[in-house]
Design a protein that fits this description.
The protein has 106 residues and is an alpha+beta fold. The protein has a single domain, classed as NE0471 N-terminal domain-like (2-Layer Sandwich), CATH 3.30.2020.30. The protein contains 4 helices and 6 strands, in the order E-E-E-H-H-H-E-E-E-H. The chain has a 3-stranded antiparallel beta sheet. A 3-stranded antiparallel beta sheet has the order 4-5-6.
Length: 106
């Protein structure tokens, strides 16, 4: 899969990423939210002892379609009504989450 994103489509419960090579990934919002890259959330999912607590906290939140704002040609800023809105979600980060290849040690 090429990581060049062509289109990002928001649905009620998930986000779909379409790539220039024709591949497509769909990711539920609750899973996306659990890997928030903001300064408040990132340390929680990077720490194995705190990661489970963050995942459980996110599961208790109401599923919501966040507002999305493009940031250049490389990222999206999601605004969640239940909190976080300061993280920049690079297309690479979103792809890594969808493919379960996020390296939490870096």
């Amino acid at each position: 899969m090429a990581d060049r994103l062509k289109e990002l489509e928001r649905a009620d419960n998930s986000i779909t990423l379409r790539y220039v090579d024709g591949d497509e990934l769909t990711l539920p919002y609750h899973e996306l939210r659990a890997w928030c890259p903001c300064a408040k959330c990132r340390p929680r999912w990077k720490d194995p002892h705190r990661r489970l607590g963050l995942a459980e906290e996110v599961k208790r939140l109401r599923i919501e379609m966040p507002k999305a704002e493009a940031v250049g040609r490389y990222a999206v800023r999601f605004t969640w009504t239940s909190g976080c809105s300061s993280g920049l979600w690079s297309f690479e980060h979103i792809t890594d989450i969808a493919l379960n290849r996020l390296d939490v040690d870096h």
